[in-house]
Specification:
With 133 residues, the protein is mainly alpha-helical. It is built from 8 helices and 2 strands, in the order H-H-E-H-H-E-H-H-H-H.
């Protein structure tokens, strides 16, 4: 389990034999569309991103540095996956396909593996299996 500890994960007691009752188990949330009409603007909050862009634009750093910082600033966009599930449910077929390709929604787990969205999970599974040997 030492290699999994490097990732900050602990295995449940029944798998480790440990008395530790706490776990950092990672589970994939499953969002079920509510049936409520959703605007695309409810799917994200980009206020912090916009503030960062404004600060970057006002800065005296080079254009190359601004470009880099603007790319990095996208990590401040917060996605509301419950609203995304609602939006997806009533979106056009083309929009649904693009949302799936971007992994905003994962409908087909095998396809998600094929696209590389579950790679870390698979790597962690292999590490866990190695520790059991």
């Amino acid at each position: 389990m030492k290699q999994l500890d490097l990732f900050g994960f602990e295995m449940p007691v029944e798998q480790t034999g440990s008395e530790n009752k706490y776990s950092k188990k990672v589970s994939t949330p499953i969002y079920t569309p509510s049936g409520r009409p959703t605007s695309i603007y409810e799917c994200y909050d980009h206020q912090k991103y916009l503030r960062m862009i404004r600060r970057i634009d006002e800065s005296n750093v080079s254009e190359e540095e601004k470009y880099f910082l603007k790319l990095a600033a996208t990590r401040h966009i917060i996605f509301n996956f419950e609203r995304i599930a609602d939006y997806y449910a009533s979106a056009s077929k083309e929009m649904q396909e693009l949302m799936e390709k971007s992994a905003l929604v994962i409908i087909d787990f095998d396809k998600a593996i094929e696209e590389g969205f579950v790679q870390l999970n698979d790597k962690m599974r292999r590490l866990y299996e190695q520790e059991l040997d």
